[in-house]
Design a protein that fits this description.
The protein is α+β, with helices and mostly antiparallel strands and 214 residues long. The chain is 34% helix and 21% strand. Residues 1-20 have low confidence and may be disordered.
Length: 214
């Protein structure tokens, strides 16, 4: 939802000396989540027996789960849409920016990848026409792993979606949104330890062999 995406958040960072900014979010869509209704019920695990899941299923459709993750508060704001796109993305932005503490903040940083619904300078221009306090930060291309929402989505995959047995899209949507609410109530922020200096060291190590070849 809101955040730098590559430095430890909160306080002053030793590497940059930047002042604390408490309104940072990381945003990602989880696209094409299918609702698969298993044609036979599975069996629960038991002594000496793992859980068994029917491998045949009927597709009940797919949806996109947009999630905004507040890196300081471990708070998730999520929406389910039938497809991705600029309008669904901006509905999520509206849901976040209409609530405190973001509505009254002087600056709110949105860290996003380069997906088509929020790509390039046009994205920031559109958002700032409605919410002047928004600052959009794009992660580098092929570097969406810097987005902590990916970590949240990995938790969603394990705790909500696997083994994917939903009778309808409505059931899938209800489960995703309920988990987001529960997560926001009990979770703590991730301890992000990969700093800008770490990134510079990796880039320097990668560039050295190329310089020798040249």
């Amino acid at each position: 939802m809101l955040g730098d995406g590559h430095v430890r958040f909160g306080g002053r960072t030793r590497e940059t000396g930047r002042p604390k900014c408490r309104n940072r979010a990381l945003v990602r869509p989880y696209t094409s989540i299918q609702a698969r209704a298993r044609i036979h019920p599975g069996s629960p695990p038991g002594p000496g027996r793992v859980r068994r899941v029917e491998h045949e299923y009927v597709r009940r459709g797919a949806l996109t789960y947009f999630a905004a993750y507040d890196v300081h508060r471990a708070r998730v704001v999520g929406r389910c849409e039938r497809r991705s796109g600029i309008a669904p993305f901006e509905r999520l932005v509206e849901a976040v920016m209409g609530a405190e503490p973001y509505a009254s903040a002087s600056r709110v940083f949105w860290v996003v990848d380069n997906g088509s619904s929020h790509r390039g300078p046009g994205c920031e221009a559109r958002l700032r026409r409605r919410w002047p306090q928004i600052r959009v930060v794009h992660t580098p291309v092929h570097a969406s792993w810097l987005d902590q929402t990916e970590i949240y989505f990995s938790i969603v995959q394990r705790k909500v979606l696997d083994p994917n047995d939903f009778a309808s899209l409505a059931e899938l949507e209800a489960r995703l949104l309920a988990f987001g609410e529960r997560y926001s109530a009990v979770a703590k922020p991730f301890e992000w330890r990969f700093t800008r200096l770490d990134l510079h060291r990796v880039l320097a190590a990668l560039s050295s062999p190329l310089e020798k070849v040249a």
